[in-house]
Structure of Clathrin/coatomer adaptor adaptin-like N-terminal domain-containing protein:
Amino acid sequence: MPFNLDSYLILCKVNLGILIVVIFDCRTVRSSAALALGKLSGLSTRVDPLVGDLLSNLQGSDGGVREAILSALKGVLKHAGKNVSSAVRNRVYTVLKDLIHHDDDKVRAYAANILGVLTQSSNNNRQYLEDVQLTELVQELASLANSPSWAPRHGSLLTISSLFQHSPSAICSSPLFPAIVDRLRDSLKDEKFPLRETSTKALGRLLLYKAQMDPSDTLLYKDVLSMLASSTHDDSSEVRRRALSAIKAVAKANPSAILSHGSIIGPALADSLKDANTPVRLAAERCILHAFQLTKGPENVQAVQKFITGLDARRLSKLPEYSDDSGDSDEDTSSS
């Protein structure tokens, strides 16, 4: 085989990236190296050895090193997943399924997010996981939701949320989909607020997918929207803010679908506008602005006064429409 200088240089950079991720003490340097390694992998044809090295180093790692390795693994699968052989993908799948049970919440979040990446479709419209593996995964997630230990319950919800982000059609078409929705509903009452927050985020992603792809399923739509509305009254301000961000994201994607259910969300949003927590109040303002389309005409400003005062309605209608994002960024593990 003729010597290819470009390929050799890429391989050297990849190997250097692995070294930095594994041995450097500085978290910032490790994180930067992990991101670069993921992008470099897209330029290399020798991805299997790289993934194998990451998995091997993962076994004996902990703390920040383990997080950096998982971040690098996510990047490699995101940028070069199509070049990973089925045998190596199976090994990744097995390791990650174990890690969603892990005691460390960051490890659970990383593992859940990477599993979501594994379920999404590649460029040739074929998912990286085999159908039987995806079915097995959904079955395990449904059963883990009943675990007496909160860490596996949390891991299952994180993974369900990740699936709704990366491969929503796969989970929505599963025979276990109704059971999954019921698990999310039950988790909104869990004593652990991270489970309630993750369930709220998963429901928001489900509703967003349905609003974009299948708004005709009105029964499910109203059911999920009602659950999100109830989450705006949660004891945790993080859960309340998450619910408001989820409703806002759906309103921005399909305004008419939300506007037609004003009676469901109106009272909840009005209460949130008086929340004692400032970030929640600000989230409520943005949510009302988009949910009731206050910048689209005086008739909408008038209609929303069934739920909020005229003074508030006019004030909110003057907010800049495009000054915020969807509130659902997933580049960090905390939002998996």
DSSP finds 18 helices and no strands in the chain. The mean pLDDT is 83. Residues 188-336 form a domain with the Leucine-rich Repeat Variant fold (CATH 1.25.10.10). The chain has three domains: 1-84, 94-174, 188-336.
